[in-house]
Amino acid sequence: MIKQINHDQGFLSQKATRATKADAAAVTDLVDTLKANTSRAVGLAANMIGVKKRIIAIQLGMLSIPMVNPEITKKSGPYEATEGCLSLEGQRTTTRYKTIEVTYQDQNFKSHTQTFNDFTAEIIQHEVDHTNGILI
């Protein structure tokens, strides 16, 4: 189900808790909401739709990829990025890393470890920050 985008910075600044199989509907809602906003977003975190769980979704072309309980385990190649956010007005500068390794579960709660680079890595870092209550 497509949800409204949350703009409450107090809520967005709270750290999310680990997701469980009981949160499967939130994964679906997050992907549906991202697909509905692809003209203006490349990623969303669950707290952006009012769910304080460690769930993100990223858009890679036509493919929406949910990541449950993502953790960045390695990072290299720091640089300054200018980013926007659906939950916030304007753009801000932040430090990101060119290459990251992420452990996460897919929507079926199967574990994965994967390396991401460049813009995809930047999207994931932005959304993982959301799950940690960090706003750009």
- State the end-to-end distance: 27 Å
Q: Which CATH-level-2 architecture?
A: Alpha-Beta Complex
What is the rounded Rg?
14 Å
Q: How many individual domains? A: 1
The fold-level CATH name is: Peptide Deformylase
Discrete helix count: 3
Order of secondary-structure elements: HHEEEEEH
Q: How many β-strand stretches? A: 5
Report the structural category: alpha+beta
Q: What fraction of the residues are assigned to beta strands by DSSP?
A: 35-45%
CATH class equals Alpha Beta
Sheet with the most strands? 5 strands, antiparallel
The CATH superfamily appears as: Peptide deformylase
Q: Which stretches of 5+ consecutive residues score pLDDT under 50?
A: none
The pLDDT mean sits at 96
Overall body shape: globular
**Biggest sheet, spatial arrangement of strands:** 1-2-3-4-5
Helix content: 10-25%
State the main characteristics.
136 residues; 5-stranded antiparallel sheet; alpha+beta; Peptide Deformylase
Question: What does this entry look like structurally?
Answer:
The protein starts with 8 loop residues before the first helix and ends in a 5-residue tail after the last helix. The model has no long low-confidence stretch (mean pLDDT 96). Helix content is 23%, strand content 39%. It is an alpha+beta fold. The protein has a single domain, classed as Alpha-Beta Complex (Peptide Deformylase), CATH 3.90.45. The chain has a 5-stranded antiparallel beta sheet with strand order 1-2-3-4-5.
